[in-house]
Design a protein that fits this description.
Layout lengths: L1 E4 L11 E4 L5 H10 L5 E4 L12 H29 L2 E5 L12 H21 L5 E5 L19 H13 L4 E2 L3 H11 L2 H14 L5
Parallel strand pairs: 1-2, 3-4, 4-5, 5-6
Bound molecules: NADP nicotinamide-adenine-dinucleotide phosphate.
């Protein structure tokens, strides 16, 4: 297992290899790729979330830089390894991809874009047998939600449910009780049916 972090990081389990990785830094992404010999599963987990009211364009740009372009850049860089292993990509998106929480609208926009990216990658990479999962995570007890006095799930149980979802082949994973309430209606929705219908346009031409 490789753990990409911005600051030096040491894990007690020696099977974890740390990598310095700022997902907005192209040179660091490339250096990370060069240290990884083979890869079965890429988890895009890095994210930022700041309060805003959409009055400052730079706040939106910061969110897009990490939550959208970071996910995009890391995925493209590791794609040759994932193609070779016929592996999987797991993008930790958010329930807010589906409905914005207006206290963090820039965050919600970036997550909606990351979700849409995930859906396109899923269609485009199907011919290479690379599976692409979106995780529509609900409130989880981490630094990100420290200011919110709401019910939150434990990160350990969310992580476990994400890997269960990957093992079960779920395209969209709802890993906690709050997000789980959306699962059935999303999976039977017109929007999901359209995603599958549109995907056939690229899946019919794998050589392209
Ligand atoms: N917590 C929730 O309720 C919740 C709900 C839905 C989705 N999510 C998603 O879950 C993921 C993990 O978030 P979390 O809850 O664990 O929040 P967190 O405690 O704030 O952790 C975010 C992590 O992302 C890293 N990061 C930020 N910018 C980065 C960059 N440019 N390059 C590399 N790493 C970067 C941070 O690194 P530093 O330590 O260096 O700052 C930190 O380790 C995020 O994508 C978040 O959007 C969380």
């Amino acid at each position: 297992m490789y753990a990409g972090t911005r600051q030096p990081f040491a894990h007690t389990d020696r099977r974890v290899t740390p990598l310095i990785l700022d997902v907005t830094d192209t040179a660091q992404i490339q250096a990370a790729v060069e240290q990884v010999e083979s890869l079965d599963v890429l988890v895009n987990n890095a994210g930022i979330a700041h309060y805003d009211d959409l009055s400052d364009r730079s706040v939106l740009e910061q969110h897009l830089a990490v939550n959208l372009f970071g996910t995009y850049g890391v995925t493209q860089a590791f794609l040759p390894l994932l193609t070779r292993s016929q592996g999987a990509i797991v993008n930790n998106v958010s329930m807010m991809a589906m409905a914005p929480f207006p206290v963090t609208p820039a965050y919600a926009m970036s997550k909606a874009a990351a979700f849409n990216l995930t859906q396109s990658l899923r269609a485009l990479l199907a011919a290479r047998r690379v599976r692409v999962h979106a995780v529509l995570t609900g409130p989880t007890d981490t630094d990100m939600t420290r200011g919110f006095d709401i019910p939150k799930s434990a990160p350990e149980s969310v992580a476990r449910a994400i890997f269960d979802g990957v093992d079960n082949g779920e395209e969209d994973i709802f890993p906690d009780p709050a997000s789980e309430t959306l699962a059935d209606s999303w999976r039977s929705s017109v929007a999901k049916a359209l995603e599958h219908e549109y995907a056939t346009f690229v899946q019919a031409q794998p050589a392209a």
